[in-house]
Amino acid sequence: MRATFMYGAGDVRVEDAPDPVLEQPTDAIVRIVRACICGSDLHPYHNLPASTGGAPMGHEFLGFVEEIGSEVAGLKRGDFVLAPFAYADNTCDFCCEGLHTSCRKGGFWGVGGMGGGQAEAIRVPQAQGTLVNLPVGEDSALLPSLLTLTDVYGTGYHAAKRAKVNPRTTVTVIGDGAVGLLAVLSARQLGAERIILMGRHEERTQIGREFGATDIVPERGQEGIERVRELTGGVGTHTVLEAVGYMSAYEMAVGVVRPGGVISRVGMPQYEEAPIGFTSLFGPNITLTGGPAPVRAYIDELLPGVLEGKVEPGRVFDRTVGLDMVPDGYRAMDRREALKVMVQP
Amino acid sequence: MRATFMYGAGDVRVEDAPDPVLEQPTDAIVRIVRACICGSDLHPYHNLPASTGGAPMGHEFLGFVEEIGSEVAGLKRGDFVLAPFAYADNTCDFCCEGLHTSCRKGGFWGVGGMGGGQAEAIRVPQAQGTLVNLPVGEDSALLPSLLTLTDVYGTGYHAAKRAKVNPRTTVTVIGDGAVGLLAVLSARQLGAERIILMGRHEERTQIGREFGATDIVPERGQEGIERVRELTGGVGTHTVLEAVGYMSAYEMAVGVVRPGGVISRVGMPQYEEAPIGFTSLFGPNITLTGGPAPVRAYIDELLPGVLEGKVEPGRVFDRTVGLDMVPDGYRAMDRREALKVMVQP
């Protein structure tokens, strides 16, 4: 099969790779119909050290079940399925608490011997717990929106859920990437009436407006903080959904959160140490939450809205490429010529 | 009157000071019957730069209303009252949300021209919102327990409330000072059945056991972390109540919190930057919360249990001194010869 590997910063290659095979009786093999490139794939694209062994890329995909291990129940060949960006058994204590990203038998695509989703096929461990049957065919117009359930929609939703967004909470969303825009959509779904989107790419913030943002703040840094505070009577918003991951975004979050409020991070932090002492989080009783989204936990909740067409999270895709053009897709997202690139193997 | 001032690290003096007078129509003057020394008073006791102007000390007191400003309703001369460690109008939007420490007209004792509680009398701003009437007299045996409602009991309770402790959550409390012990008591009140207390002073951890701790871990650092993990099937506890404030305590909290769990800090952080990135908080979806406790918000909830004798938080006091002996009280707490010192002016 053909599959995508990264050999170092900026070095993405689509190459021949062995077809995946069942290794455990709990595995399935999925033939991939749609995949995509994630904003988080751009982090290694910027800083992965060069290596002779390529890293399998991609963690968002849907497709057909092609083979099933002997211990996989509830799935059959030919099922059209999607997979969350973390595989999980969906039965352990952490999964039962909705924290599939900490599943005792779980893990992530592309690491520890796992393949990536930007490929023609993939071996899925813990297939029974991981894969979710889709009641549509591969010709469905809903594929882009369904594909967002594998990561970016669930991740935006996780930000909003962890922040306990509700009709009484004001919200700032930091970042106009796919996750930021879907954090806006999620906050709106949870009832928020005031949603300030901090982003400066007009074609993206326009989608943000359509998803529910009431105010757009293109300024950044201290200027952006002051603008949000002006918009909120000087105090900031009850919740801040941080969908970027850079220290500058964290600093903006601290600057615009209301005393007693919540900063919910879903952008992969590109820092380890940060201010959390008296003057930043402690004094004003700020709560800091978030992490990798257990998107599996949210699919049952979010899928009906997608199937009924009540929401259209797939609008974040603005380009589709074939598998061999994946390196171009990375380039386009890195240059911000594309918001999110879908891959059609 | 006589009042306590700190002139630098280790330099506590009880001196003559002008009697407090009403300055605003919203003020009251309180003649202090009991005050105390707080673990947080030991931070300046360790590191306050020497100065020719002393800082008024003490933020926990109860006493009699002696004078009332013209705009103070609901109080009269002779009322026996207590004051939270933050004064507040109890009517602004933050107070209504239970965040009295961020009150728009509020502040703290001993700063910004305010007097301290380790004194014979004090001017109380926002008296109507700040002072709480007590249905007992100055000869009541409940005074020590009532005095804890001004800070340490409410602070321990804040840690537990912010962490959402309930009968299903396992709890680690870090620190066997007065706040740590009252965090144990609070966690038990909120229904926790498994409470691990990390502390190594046996006479204190014994009180912790009586307050509800089920396990005592005297080890610290990595050894302490491993011990708590052993006690919890390798995963740590759902909630960690951090009642110390040093970086070493934060690191222990990160080490013993369960994936998806909550670290709730009420020890005044003696650091500004700390690890919060992928390997500490983000990857395992840890929530960090806490801050200065809005104890005013909890008094209505906690007072009945004290009055009915269901709880006895006043057990944290193990020494009483007269006002002129306050410097000895600081010394005794600093040397850990006393857990918490009550002051009887």
Unreliable residue runs of chain A: none
Tell me the Rg of chain A in angstroms.
20 Å
- Mean pLDDT over the residues of chain A: 97
Beta-strand residue percentage of chain A: 25-35%
Beta strands of chain A, count: 19
CATH architecture call of the largest domain in chain A: Alpha-Beta Complex
Gap from first CA to last CA of chain A: 10 Å
Query: Which bin fits the share of residues in helices of chain A?
Result: 25-40%
Just give the CATH class of the largest domain in chain A.
Alpha Beta
Number of helices of chain A: 12
Structural class of chain A: alpha/beta
Main sheet attributes: strand count, strand direction, barrel closure of chain A: 7 strands, mixed
CATH superfamily of the largest domain in chain A: Medium-chain alcohol dehydrogenases, catalytic domain
Query: What is the number of domains of chain A?
Result: 2
Shape of chain A: globular
